[in-house]
Amino acid sequence: MGGAAITTLLQGCAGTKIISGKIGGDDLVVPLKDFETKAGNEIHYKKYIVVQNEILQYPICLYRINENEYTALWMQCTHQGAELQVFGDKLQCPAHGSEFTNKGIVQSGPAETKLRSFPVIIEANQLKISLKAI
Ligand code: FES
Q: In the list 3, 30, 58, 109, which could disulfide-bond 76, CB 3.0-4.6 Å?
């Protein structure tokens, strides 16, 4: 079961990076350079990173919308609570097929409510995601 899940993840998410975020106080802290990938001398940026931490019940998907805008989305479907999977700019639910945008907005049901999201601050080349509400 675990093996199958990992295979699916690797196939579905080329370019995904799953990292263990550090929790400092009420914040999850992720260095901005975790989004960088290098191709020769050029720096490219990943669209998203999935962050897991033993304190978190579900992973958080961090999307890089642009240099100054990031979103942090709780990867729990708002329909019946299944864990979401990331496919590029979308999050999909394996249970009944709901889809959400990279800003957490419902794109197709049966879910009707947007995803839970967390405030993100950029500070000293790090993202600080406030987890106070968890
Ligand atoms: S739990 Fe996600 S669509 Fe039903």
A: 58
Question: What integer pLDDT is reported at residue 62 of this predicted model?
Answer: 95
Beta bridge partners of 66: 69
| Neighbouring residues of 98: CB distance < 8 A, sequence distance ≥ 6 | 77, 78, 79, 92, 106, 108, 109, 110, 111
Please tell me if the CB atom of residue 96 comes closer than 6 angstroms to any atom of ligand 1. Answer: yes
Mean pLDDT score, 21-41: 82
Distance 84 CA to ligand 1 centre (A): 9
For 114-128, write each residue's pLDDT tens digit.
999 999 999 989 999
Cβ of residue 9 lying under 6 Å from some atom of ligand 1? no
Nearest CA to ligand 1 atom 1: 80
β 48-52/18-20 pair status = parallel
Query: Is the pLDDT at 107 greater than 70, yes or no?
Result: yes
- How far is it, in rounded angstroms, from Cα 84 to Cα 75? 5
To the question of pTM greater than 0.85 for the whole model, the response is: no
